[in-house]
Amino acid sequence: MIIAIDGPAASGKGTLGKRLAHHYGYRHLDTGVIYRAVAYALMESGHDLRDETAAVQAALELDPERFGNPALKTQKAGEGASIVSAIPRVREVLVNFQRQFAADPPGAVLDGRDIGTVICPDADVKIFVVADPRVRARRRTMEARARGEEADEAAVLADIIQRDERDKNRPIAPLKPAADAYLLDNSQLDIEGGVRAAIDIIEAVRAGRSRG
Ligand SMILES: Nc1ncnc2c1ncn2[C@@H]1O[C@H](COP(=O)(O)OP(=O)(O)O)[C@@H](O)[C@H]1O
Ligand SMILES: Nc1ccn([C@@H]2O[C@H](COP(=O)(O)OP(=O)(O)O)[C@@H](O)[C@H]2O)c(=O)n1
């Protein structure tokens, strides 16, 4: 089974993806980390984030062993990711890696912006996670502070809004729910509540399928 999770910045996709993968015994890929890694490679080598040749090269040289680098979690890497991810050739290079991950047994949960629309249009279940931008900014701010970083909630909110706008309005693989995605608004839910709501969706889809 393939579970596709998409949604705007800091909506809880990664947390949900990880928890669902654990619940079902599947593998999990946070696809945002791929674009963050490409952006980080450019920043480290002093290239402009809009340098297509350098960005494509960084995408070709992607090393999943480095996905755990804490530097990829920063706001700067997220902002950079949203710039490099709008380059069509960068996305093209990264499609196969993601599809291969999704296809390997026993099943996979992928989260990102275009999983249900582009990467896995035939996913068994698609969930589009949303939450009020102020709630998302608050959560992301708390997360950064828990890591010992300084974070200004208003600046985090501005970054989230700017990134969502860029991701929604790019011509290639824009952030939008697939036509057959289930919307899950977790603004008023805690992590447990969000996971339960997602499992309810997945089980309802499975039950419907086995009846049909
Ligand atoms: N349903 C939820 N309720 C409360 N906090 C949440 C919820 N889902 C995620 N979080 C917290 O919000 C922050 C952003 O979640 P994350 O999974 O990193 O989002 P995304 O992958 O969409 O960027 C994290 O600190 C996470 O612990
Ligand atoms: N499948 C994906 C995942 C992320 N991205 C881009 O990568 C950026 C960072 O993604 P992320 O999921 O790590 O961001 P957060 O939601 O964790 O803040 C996004 O703003 C998108 O521009 C994408 O284009 N397609």
TrEMBL record:
Its EC number is 2.7.4.25. It comes from Bradyrhizobium zhengyangense. One of its GO terms (molecular function) is dCMP kinase activity. It is found in: Cytoplasm. It comes from the Bacteria. Belongs to the cytidylate kinase family. Type 1 subfamily. CDD domains: CMPK. Keywords: ATP-binding, Cytoplasm, Kinase, Nucleotide-binding, Transferase. InterPro entries: Cytidylate_kin (IPR003136), Cytidylate_kinase_dom (IPR011994), P-loop_NTPase (IPR027417). This is Cytidylate kinase. One of its GO terms (biological process) is pyrimidine nucleotide metabolic process. Its main location: cytoplasm. The keyword Membrane does not apply. It catalyses: dCMP + ATP = dCDP + ADP; CMP + ATP = CDP + ADP. GO terms for cellular component: cytoplasm. Residues 3-202 form the Cytidylate kinase domain. ATP binds at residues 7-15.
